[in-house]
Amino acid sequence: YAVGHMAGMGVVNGLKAQGANVVIMSNSPDNYMMMANMSQALPCRQLISAHDSLFTMARARQSDWLTVWSLNEGQPDSRMTLEPRYYAHPFVVQTGETGQGIMERFGMSEKELYNNNPAVGDIGALSLGTVLCVVPNWLKTIGGNGQKICAAPN
């Protein structure tokens, strides 16, 4: 916001270009400087703040800690602030797939699908190649053969 406010939208749009180098200098008495390289954001990831954990990220996405933990390689418990972490599985829409079919396959409600994909305007009109962030409900997820992946407890 501050960059756009002070420098104008032309500068902000230029900074969005992948590979652009960004240098931010402070006018404050401590006179700090920050440098970064812009890159394309990966789908289904969010930056972890100092107040976040895998538990809070899972809760916000109607997921569970184990699913979020399993999506992140290495030592996901020891995280750095502002390190991107997966909160859902990236799923690429293929030919013939529909929003309804994807929700049935992964056992998700429409509300859950929209919660993880706020930029998707209409679940009923998905384009080929659209990347959706899915959080499977493992008790309702259906495999390619039409069978449930996990048996429901009796």
Strand order of the main beta sheet, please?
A: 1-2
Q: Characterize the overall form.
A: globular
List low-pLDDT spans: 1-8
N-to-C SSE series?
A: HHEEEHHEEHHE
* Helix content class: 25-40%
Overall mean pLDDT stands at 77
Describe the structure.
It contains 6 helices and 6 strands; from the N terminus they run H-H-E-E-E-H-H-E-E-H-H-E. The model is unreliable at 1-8 (pLDDT under 50). Helix 3 packs across helix 4. A hairpin with a 7-residue loop joins strand 1 and strand 2 (33-37). With 154 residues, the chain is of the alpha+beta class. The chain is 27% helix and 16% strand. The chain has helices at 2-7, 9-15, 54-60, 65-71, 99-106, 110-116, and strands at residues 21-25, 33-37, 45-47, 84-86, 89-92, 131-134. A two-stranded antiparallel ribbon has the order 1-2. Strands 3-4 form a two-stranded antiparallel sheet. A two-stranded antiparallel sheet has the order 5-6. The longest helix has 8 residues, at 99-106.
Brief digest:
The protein is of the alpha+beta class. The chain has six helices and six strands.
Descriptive labels:
154 residues, alpha+beta, two-stranded antiparallel sheet, 6 helices, disordered N terminus
What is the strand and helix layout of this fold?
Elements: H1 2-7, H2 9-15, E1 21-25, E2 33-37, E3 45-47, H3 54-60, H4 65-71, E4 84-86, E5 89-92, H5 99-106, H6 110-116, E6 131-134
Antiparallel strand pairs: 1-2, 3-4, 5-6
Helix pairs in contact: 3-4
